[in-house]
């Protein structure tokens, strides 16, 4: 049965068309506001907040960022002025082309609304500052979402009769378009679990409202299983997003296997993807989180663990992952697996960097200095460096983590005898399970195998 599946997968790979992507400059959108903008109360803010959904709706030509901060006010005399936050300053670093400003909910609190006469002036000041940015953004003013709290410091009556009229006056004075998120969330009490913050259904309505304002069109939109912009890759749904400021991708199989097994690349998504395509066809999710230029550093390990935890917590992936280390991706894959063997089912390495002194080595001055800086070490400390995969194999062997590795014996970039051969020899001495496939006469590229059945079979058996 497995042989039949592998043959079918191989045929699919050979016949699959290559996709070409052209990188274009994206339109930058900043969503500024309070906890409702941030996504407080949502189980998955990165996927379901209104700015996140707006980004999904707009697609790959836009970079939508969430600059919401819980509890904040436009009132500079309020209990938590937005202009005093660190996030406010980040908006200027972003230099957006479009800004959505959504305040008023916290401003309506009794202790804040006593400064109501300052509301229009403070909102005008915010508009003036943002309008003066180098990017000259188009600004939209949003009316606050409906509040369903019956007894409390935030009252919808104050929002309706006090906040909203003032926002409308400021919008009219500045000839800015209003985005009526109050009307969009009216009659949706059941979608405000705490009567203040929207669930993902109500957040979708807010995103639709913003989308209509931007494009002039209405759009039906299905809530997604994963965050980011949904596109196609090799016939499968692909989701592109950022996690802690770094690019990430999830490619979903047509029919996921029970338990949601997944294969994770820390570098070079889409390069020589024979194995990835095969695993998708067999029901695995293919996941990429770009840590390529962090050289397996402690920072990359921390980011990787945060990413892994998010995949488990929010998307229900299997607690044991297949790690896939291509080239410098091997630095992260082996060291992260050594630190987290209980989270790994097996490792697939392909022309892996196993000794940083071999690649980039001191001959590549730019990359070598980048490596030293990332690791925060000095040249003279390299004689005691223990961050290489070849130095961190004991935990893997003890945990009996199986490894399959592919390399060319004529690799001039990452020489086999300086990297994988040493790793394999040491792993075997530790009684670790490793299978090495040598490609005779092959340089660093191409990676993988034309017929990847041995790799796929190894993964399925572990």
UniProtKB/TrEMBL annotation:
Residues 1-21 form the signal peptide. Keywords: Signal. One of its GO terms (molecular function) is phosphatidylcholine lysophospholipase activity. GO terms for biological process: proteolysis. Residues 315-444 form the Peptidase S9 prolyl oligopeptidase catalytic domain. The keyword S-adenosyl-L-methionine does not apply. InterPro entries: AB_hydrolase_fold, Ester_Hydrolysis_Enzymes, Peptidase_S9_cat, SGNH_hydro, SGNH_hydro_sf. The keyword Signal applies. Residues 31-198 form the SGNH hydrolase-type esterase domain. This is GDSL-type esterase/lipase family protein. It comes from Bacteroides cellulosilyticus.
């Amino acid at each position: 049965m497995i042989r039949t599946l592998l043959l079918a997968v191989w045929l699919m790979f050979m016949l699959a068309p290559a996709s070409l992507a052209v990188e274009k400059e994206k339109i930058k959108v900043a969503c500024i506001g309070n906890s409702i903008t941030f996504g407080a109360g949502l189980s998955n803010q990165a996927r379901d907040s209104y700015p996140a959904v707006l980004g999904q709706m707009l697609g790959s030509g836009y970079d939508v960022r969430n600059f919401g901060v819980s509890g904040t006010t436009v009132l500079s005399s309020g209990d938590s002025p937005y202009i005093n936050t660190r996030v406010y300053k980040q908006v200027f670093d972003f230099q957006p082309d479009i800004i959505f400003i959504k305040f008023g909910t916290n401003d309506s609190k009794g202790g804040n609304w006593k400064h109501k006469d300052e509301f229009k002036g403070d909102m005008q000041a915010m508009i003036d500052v943002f309008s003066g940015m180098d990017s000259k953004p188009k600004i939209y003013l949003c009316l606050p979402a409906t509040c369903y709290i019956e007894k409390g410091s935030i009252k919808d009556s104050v929002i309706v009769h006090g906040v909203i009229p003032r926002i409308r006056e400021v919008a009219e004075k500045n000839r800015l378009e209003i985005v009526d998120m109050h009307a969009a969330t009216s009659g949706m009490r059941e979608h405000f679990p705490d009567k203040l913050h929207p669930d993902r259904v109500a957040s979708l309505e807010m995103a639709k409202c913003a989308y209509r304002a931007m494009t002039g069109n209405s759009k039906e939109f299905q809530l997604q299983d994963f965050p980011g912009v949904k596109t196609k890759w090799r016939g499968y749904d692909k989701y592109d997003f950022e996690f802690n400021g770094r690019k990430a991708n999830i490619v979903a199989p047509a029919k996921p296997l029970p338990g949601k097994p997944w294969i994770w690349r820390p570098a070079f998504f889409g390069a020589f993807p024979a194995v990835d395509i095969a695993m998708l066809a067999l029901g695995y999710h293919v996941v990429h989180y770009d840590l390529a230029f962090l050289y397996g550093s402690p920072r990359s390990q921390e980011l990787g663990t945060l990413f892994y935890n998010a995949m488990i917590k929010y998307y229900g992936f299997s607690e044991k992952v297949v790690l896939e280390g291509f080239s410098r991706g091997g630095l992260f894959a082996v060291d992260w697996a050594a630190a987290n063997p209980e989270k790994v089912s097996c490792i697939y390495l392909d022309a892996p960097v196993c000794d940083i002194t071999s690649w980039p080595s001191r001959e590549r001055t730019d990359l070598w200095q980048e490596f030293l800086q990332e690791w925060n070490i000095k040249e003279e400390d390299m004689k005691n460096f223990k961050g290489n995969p070849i130095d961190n194999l004991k935990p893997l062997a003890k945990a009996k983590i199986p490894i399959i590795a592919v390399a060319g014996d004529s690799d001039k970039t990452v020489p086999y005898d300086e990297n994988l051969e040493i790793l394999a020899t040491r792993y075997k001495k530790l009684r670790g399970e490793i299978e090495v496939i040598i490609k005779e006469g092959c340089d660093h590229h191409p990676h993988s195998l034309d017929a990847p059945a041995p790799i796929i079979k190894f993964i399925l058996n572990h």
